[in-house]
Amino acid sequence: MSPDRPVTTHVRFVRHGEVADKHKGTFYGGAEADLSEHGLAASLVLAAELALDPPDHVHTSPLSRARILAEELARRAGCELTVLEAFRELDRGDWTHRTRDAVETDSPGAVARYLGDPEAGNAPGGERESELAARVWGAVDQIVSASPGERLVVVTHGHVIRVIMRRLLGWSAVDSLQRFVSYHTVLETVWLPDGSGRLLSLPPTDMPEALRDTPRARD
Length: 219
Description:
By secondary structure, the chain is of the alpha/beta class. The protein is built from 7 helices and 6 strands. A 6-stranded mixed beta sheet has the order 3-2-4-1-5-6. Helix 2 links the parallel strand 2 and strand 3 (80-83). The longest helix has 18 residues, at 129-146.
């Protein structure tokens, strides 16, 4: 590499697999939620696929739905695994493990207020959008600065990946709530030492689960 060319760090952000049916339709957020049988099997398959282009280091959320994939990938790739609390999913506070209907019964319009202003409309006792973004962006800066020129994988969650895309693409918080990636999406990114980065490709995104009429998982 030319000495005049800055060293880049390649990071693949991976969303965990499908959760079990009992969690679908609830705001499980930063709490534990086990994988479905399909989600578990698919996580092991994806780990094997990612190991074909082995990373130098794997980082993961502490939650088991992410760690299962991360641990299998690190084992196959023969690389170090680091658990970082900063890559945990958004803390849903009083909404944790509750359905949208239950939240709305207690506080009519609460979900709409959140979607219209995720900073002021956060769940009682939960994280604000600014708090989520600060911890996630800080963690990204940390791992990039510690691993110049390396290839990293981070196994994490929907809201975490959403705020990473916010940073890279300049989305507003409200707009980003329309742009969630699906289970097992791999977000390919490259980062410079100054903290700037770019997507290598934009994966398919969709409206947040909380806006859907069908009772699918929201986090």
